Amino acid sequence: MWLDVVVPSYAAVPTRLDHRIVASFVSPPPGAPALRTEELTPVATVHHRPLVLSPPVGAGDWYASDSCCADDTHHRRGLISINGQLLVPQRFAIDWYRVDSEHRAWIGDPSKLGSYLTYDQPVLASAARKVVDVKDGLPSNPDIPKPPEDPANR
Q1: Per-domain residue ranges for the chain?
Q2: C-alpha span between 119 and 123 (Å, rounded)
Q3: CB under 8 Å to 103, separation ≥6 — which residues?
Q4: What is the tens place of the pLDDT at every residue in 82-102?
Q5: Residue 62's closest CA among 94, 92, 99?
Q6: What is the pTM of this model?
Q7: What are the DSSP calls for 55-114, one per residue?
Q8: First to last CA, the chain
Q9: Which of 55, 60, 63 is nearest to 150 (CA)?
């Protein structure tokens, strides 16, 4: 189950979220109740203002695909087991595509990385923070990206 909680103001954010699941079974197992209620571990909420980030891309026109928060994207539902916990680490991820004046994300053969206008573009820091680790020299990923969905077809 996925639930987005919307509050009228930042001051209205509760200090914690309590979860109760109530399930009814049409054909419960022998000896089991037809109705079952479970209380889950409360989740503390965060009460500091969010960090404001800027796009990690340079000048030009860019298309933010599969981003947060209104659309139901693979980023918002991508559960990954990390250290024994199921987390959604891509919840706020955005797939950035550079587009030209005709709103094309690639020119030429879409099976070639070099056809994409995003290819070989620099990635910029999205906030003024200290870089604590860098890894360079990894081989290029040969996988061709999935072309972005045309927003006009949504």
Answers
A1: 17-44, 53-125
A2: 11
A3: 61, 63
A4: 888 888 888 778 888 999 999
A5: 99
A6: 0.58
A7: -S--SSEEEEES-SSSS--HHHH--EEETTEEE-TTTT--EEEEE-TT--SB-S-TTSGG
A8: 24
A9: 63
Let me know: does 122 contact 58? Beta carbons within 8 Å: yes
Residue type, 149: E
For tokens 């990385």, the residue is: 113
Closest by CA position to 97, among listed 119, 77, 81: 119
Identity (one letter) of the amino acid at 154? R
Task: Tell the residue number behind the tokens 């990206």, with chain if given.
Answer: 145
Structure tokens at 50: 């969010």
pLDDT tens readout for residues 19-77: 898 989 888 888 888 898 999 889 888 888 777 888 889 889 998 887 766 667 777 77
Q: Are 96 and 56 in contact, with CB atoms under 8 Å apart?
A: yes
Q: Which two tokens stand for residue 28?
A: 């419960």
Residue with token string 């037809």: 34
Side chain identity at 123, as an amino acid letter? V
DSSP for residue 152: G
153 vs 48: CA distance, rounded Å: 38
